[in-house]
């Protein structure tokens, strides 16, 4: 149990025993999980983990799903060797922990990963998806790296003051209606700013009745009423990548 006075609202997910179909590799100063598509391809997707880190089985499951859909999928350790958050950690210390892991200060890791994909995997068409902490990172990268042709940000927290409109390529934003972390007014504000200032394609979508982490941390077989939305979120993510990469 996390801190009783403020329990961790993030479950770690349902796929504790999922082994993964890919392999771990060293990419310059960081490790990464890589899963190749069944057939040769020059399309690749960077998968950015949430607070629970690059080894979370649920996130590897999503990387494998992308690989099965025709992409080289790579999930690097964007914490660069620092410990991921654990559900048993004291939630009252989360804010201090997070200050040392800024989702907008990952360019060194992103540079290494993009170079690896191009030089070691033959990737020419690149995209990025990210969950929670990784959703924030996707937003940052899509405003920074023009070679990323498509991005999908899943429940990445946005703040009113953020510079959020200068996307370089099409980006899809997935949110949950009942997300304890992200108030719907922030989602509305994001959409308003994008409509006013954004020069590329984007979409902001809220999935009814869903909670934080629903696309990657919930098993389709866990809650029948959520299954259609979990599957819809995953399908929407893949369709967006297919459209622009």
Automatic annotation (TrEMBL):
Q: Does the keyword Cytoplasm apply?
A: yes
Any one GO MF annotation of this record: hydrolase activity
Q: What UniProt keywords apply to this chain's record, in alphabetical order?
A: Cytoplasm, Hydrolase
- Give start and end of each Dienelactone hydrolase domain: 30-244
Give the principal location in a single coarse category. cytoplasm
Coiled coil (UniProt feature): none
Name under which the protein is recorded = Carboxymethylenebutenolidase homolog
